[in-house]
Structures are given as structure tokens and as C-alpha cells.
Amino acid sequence: SHGVMKMTVIGCGYLGATHAACMAELGHDVLGVDVDATKIESLGAGTVPFFEPNLDDVLKRNIAAGRLRFTTDFAEAAQFGRVHFLGVGTPQQPTSGAADLTALRTAVRALVGQLRGEHLIVGKSTVPVGTSAELADEIAALARHASVELAWNPEFLREGFAVDDTLRPDRIVVGTDPGRPDSRAADKLAEVYRAILDEPTPYLTMDWATAELVKVSANAFLATKISFINAISEICEVAGGDVTALADAIGHDARIGRRFLNAGLGFGGGCLPKDIRAFAARAEELGVGSALSFLRQVDEVNMRRRTAAVAMVERACDGSVLGRNVAVLGAAFKPESDDVRDSPALAVAAQLALRGARVAVFDPKAMGNAARGFPTLRYAESAPAAARNADVVIVATEWAEFVHMSPDELSGIVARRLIVDARRCLDGDSWTAAGWDYRALGSTVDGPAPAAVEVVAAAQNSESLV
Ligand code: UDX
């Protein structure tokens, strides 16, 4: 029917699988492509290989409707359609922190040589500024029998809201070749997104470099906002202030805004930590490292929260966790996700285990990924099971089921009624009223000082989902 286009989505990890399913949901004919045959088989059978609310439904519905298929064959992709989205991962390089563009280059090479006629390649991955220009040169050299244009269209979706964020984005950003003012790429993409743009959605066109920078700047800003409030919480800890009341109060200023001002264990996940490091590394390559040197501090403030959580637990345990039973509630880097990449919760759990605690972890969705990344921790089958005989319970990810947990339910199970709220998500008064020693990260700490705690290193990751 009218407006239906044929397109491929190359790279079917978190971003690509969501994008492919959502483009089919808009009515398009979509072919998902990935080099990972297991992933492709699973997606083709209608099973999302990770947890994301609603994605399963969208995937199944569109496969059933015949609008969505998956393949590992790039020749098929080259023939299938004239618009090709790139959603492959751009992970962090181990030493420099810079982005690793290997998967992106490999995907471009696998596709472009096989193209015939006119095509539009649309990058969605988060990349260092300058990548589009570089890839375009590579594409021009590879496209012997085709005329291929490149646009950069960054994705802002949040895990846990991926489908909604894709179908109802705050804005759509499209970067095109500044050397081609006559480019039709932005119009072509507006056609792809027609159904979204029918609902008023800002459609912002700009040059490649700006579009690339929009994405990393947005994430750098969000990370800075979180570290800002966490830095203030360090002050509150020694001065006796209440960082939550403070965030509420400053958040009423519309210029500041209350969202992303939740103090606690800080940010983790597959994007924010890696993106600020890659952005800082790129600034250095460009000779303006000092412009983003504050991002190193944003990173440091964030990592110090993990250290502070470990220290708070040690203080609460009279200086040492050696031999203590510690229940860690939460393993995912945030609620509504099974992603444990750079998870603050698991970094704390691992550090406590290193310091001799007997740690039991429970998470509603992330147990499998957590156990693969941290096989030596003990995993319990429920929050109460993790809390059985615990000397201290830590809430490390603010899943609703932990937030709404009744203190009385755990009171008879634990060895000692001591709870550390590392996400400041519990109603402390109700825990105190039920006879618990309630402590929150970001509030005054007392008790004997623990032995020096080393900075908890960036957690090792489970298999990458991107
Ligand atoms: C982020 C961006 O929000 C998204 O736009 C981008 O496309 C990808 O990166 P995501 O990684 O899914 O999305 O998670 P997000 O909801 O941003 O949370 C990131 C981390 O910050 C989580 O660990 C979360 O617990 C933490 N966080 C968030 C806080 O500590 N405090 C807050 O107030 C908000």
C-alpha cells in the first residue's frame, strides 16, 4: 500500500532488533541482518534474545503479518531494499576508551560492494564525530556499481522503553553530507518516518558532524546531571543534608528539571559510561581534550558512588564484611532491563565478595546475564531467599518489587534488620518504624570507618547485547 518501503536493518542487537521491529510496525517491509546466526534464528522465530517490555509482541505481530524477516546473507540485503540502517555495536576499546568501529566497517564492506543502483545508508550507531565523513569515503571507494548516499540518524532510545521511544521519539535527528546541499537523503528518511512525523515530532536536519555530536552530547549531559547530584550527595553525607529533598527543590526550576537528578549508585549500562569515555577520547584526538576533561570527573564521581556504597555497608557491619551474609537486591544496571553491562549493582556485589562477604544476589530479570558475567556470586531465587540470614540487605537496583517490599516480610527472615538503600528508593520511615536500621547512600554516615576501599573497577560485562 501507499508509503510502504523496503528496508534492511544491519546489526540486530538491542538497537537494531528494536528498530527493525518498529519499522515493520510502521507498515514497512523490513529485513533484519546480522552475522550472528543464533541471534537471527531466534529473532526469526519471534523470540527476542534479551528482555525489553513489549518488543516480543511487536516482533511476533510483524513476523506474522509478513512484514519482518531476518537473514545472515548480505547479498540478500543488498537486493532487498534501497534503504539500509546500520545498528551495529560500537563498543569501548579496552585501553583508550575510544569507540571500536570494527563492526561498523565490516558491515559497510559486506554490504556496499554488492549494491546496484541508488541506495541510502543510514547510520544509527553512536559514533565519534567524523565517522560519517570517513565512512562515506570508504563507501565511495567500494560502491563501484551503485550510487550510495550516507546519512547519520542517531538513536536516543532508553532500555526498558525502547519500543515507545522508537515509535514516539522526542525528536528525529538527521545528519547529511555538508558537501551535497542538493542531497535528497533527509527527504527520503522523512518518508520512512512519515507515520511518526504525522504526530508532530521535531524533524531536525543538519550536517553529519552535528548529528554525530548531538547523540554524544545528549548522553554526556545526562551523565553529567547524574554525577552532579551524586557529587552534591557526597556533600550531604558529611554536612547532614538530604539530597532527595534538595533535588526536588532545585528540580522545580524548569531550567534544571527534576528528571535524571536521582542520587544513588550512579549510572551504568551499555551507553552512558562508554559514551562519555569515547567522547573524551575523541576530544583528545582532536586536540581539545581540555574541553571535555570534566567528563573524566563525571566518570570519577560516578565510580566513587560504588566505592561509597561498599564503604557504607562495611561501616554498617562494624568495619568489615568478612564472613557476613550480604543480600544484594538488583543486578541489572537499572529496573525494567536484564542488561548487566557496567552494572553498579554487580560491581558492588563483586567488591563485597572480594572483601570476604557471603553475597547472595537476586534480580527479577537479570539473573542469567549476571551469572554469566559473575559466575562466582551466589544467586537466590527471590528477594526473601537472598535476605535469608542476611546481616545486611542492600537495594542496588530500584525494581518496583523492591521499592514496594514490606519491611515486615523480611523482618523475620534476616539475621539483623539492617538495610542499605543505595538507590534512595525506599520509604525509610516505614523501615525504621518496623525496627530496621535504615541507611541511604547520600545521607549522613556514622559508625567506625572501614579500611580503605579501592575504586571499584568498571565491571566486566556479560556478553554484549549490542
Ligand atoms: C541512555 C540514554 O537515556 C538514552 O537516551 C541513550 O540512547 C542510551 O543511554 P539507558 O542506558 O537505557 O539510556 O538508561 P538510562 O535510563 O539513561 O539510565 C542510565 C543509568 O543512569 C542507569 O544505570 C540508571 O540507574 C542511572 N540513573 C538514571 C541514575 O543513577 N539517576 C537518574 O536520575 C537517572
TrEMBL record:
Pathway: Nucleotide-sugar biosynthesis; UDP-alpha-D-glucuronate biosynthesis; UDP-alpha-D-glucuronate from UDP-alpha-D-glucose: step 1/1. It is an enzyme of class 1 (oxidoreductase). It catalyses: UDP-alpha-D-glucose + 2 NAD(+) + H2O = UDP-alpha-D-glucuronate + 2 NADH + 3 H(+). Keywords: NAD, Oxidoreductase. The keyword Oxidoreductase applies. The keyword NAD applies. Pfam families: UDPG_MGDP_dh, UDPG_MGDP_dh_C, UDPG_MGDP_dh_N. Its EC number is 1.1.1.22. Residues 327-428 form the UDP-glucose/GDP-mannose dehydrogenase C-terminal domain. Belongs to the UDP-glucose/GDP-mannose dehydrogenase family. PANTHER family: UDP-GLUCOSE 6-DEHYDROGENASE TUAD. This is UDP-glucose 6-dehydrogenase. It comes from Gordonia defluvii.
